[in-house]
Amino acid sequence: MINKILSYFPDSVTQENIPASPSTDYFWFKEADARPIWVGIPKDKISESQLDLMKNMFHFVEPENHTHLSGAAHSWNRFLFHDGEMPATEDDEVRFIQFRLQVKDMETEEIHEALNGFFPDHPIIWIHSSFGIIIEEKKKVSENAEELYSIASTFESDFFVKISFYMGKFQKVTAQLPHFFDKEKQVFEELTSHTTRDNVYTFEKSFPMLLATHLPDYLKKILELSILDAFEEDKELMATIKVFLESSSNASLSAKKLYVHRNTLQYRLDKFMEKTGVNLKDFDAAVVVYLASLYEEIR
């Protein structure tokens, strides 16, 4: 496979070890073999669609930003990305809160200082200028989704920058932790490549969205000819059904979120069920309709 890549991109370079100081003129990829090869493709020789394809075929090695690495952050960086020793922790479980700024090549000290101010007790690693991770130990006061939403809102109002967070799962600090983080990083990368509609994600929130992006064609066709037909004719109806299902089918809460009278909400629900023949009180049916609404939103 590497030989085919080199023949297609003849100006590429290869290395048997991870580049110590990878050139920013190249996109770097790692082959997932027992003895991997690192491949650098010149940025001016690859199209955007080719880059997306390469990212799906190989592990994309993003250039690291070492400017703000010291102490615990430096130890975690070595452990997660360079087979370093396991960092010393006060507790045996940690989780990773990933963050991504919706802007490219932003270099501002104020952004770094703001994140350090919001998370003073947690090591922060900037992978590159718009993406990084916060390491949180379980024994400390855990961050919650509401606090992350508040931080995201502050970033938008103070810096005019949208930031998205992915709140990972607590895991034991073992030699397998870097592999687990790599999987969570993949989830967040794929999620933000399809949507940035929300500021805070968890695995539970991400899972149905990622399922909706990987539906086989025959299932998409069935959805399009049944449930999505109703949504296509009435976008307001889709928004109503989606909010209703995301509100645990609570009619009062849904009506409040949509700023409509409860009777108006009920009318729209009845209209949807009449058009599709789908009973939203049935759990299995509700799951299918919710996946359909996510698919319609991101396609």
Layout of secondary structure:
Layout: H1 2-8, E1 13-15, E2 26-30, E3 38-42, H2 48-57, E4 59-61, H3 71-81, E5 93-101, H4 109-118, E6 124-128, E7 131-137, H5 145-159, E8 163-167, E9 171-172, H6 177-194, E10 200-202, H7 203-213, H8 217-225, H9 227-233, H10 235-246, H11 251-258, H12 262-276, H13 283-298
Parallel strand pairs: 8-10
Antiparallel strand pairs: 1-3, 2-3, 2-4, 5-7, 5-8, 5-9, 6-7
Helix pairs in contact: 6-7, 7-13, 9-10, 10-11, 10-13, 11-12
Describe the structure.
With 299 residues, this protein is α+β, with helices and mostly antiparallel strands. It has helices spanning 2-8, 48-57, 71-81, 109-118, 145-159, 177-194, 203-213, 217-225, 227-233, 235-246, 251-258, 262-276, 283-298, and strands spanning 13-15, 26-30, 38-42, 59-61, 93-101, 124-128, 131-137, 163-167, 171-172, 200-202. Strands 5, 6, 7, 8, 9 and 10 form a six-stranded mixed sheet that branches. Strands 1-3-2-4 form a four-stranded antiparallel sheet. The longest helix has 18 residues, at 177-194. It is globular. The two termini are 31 Å apart. The mean pLDDT is 86.
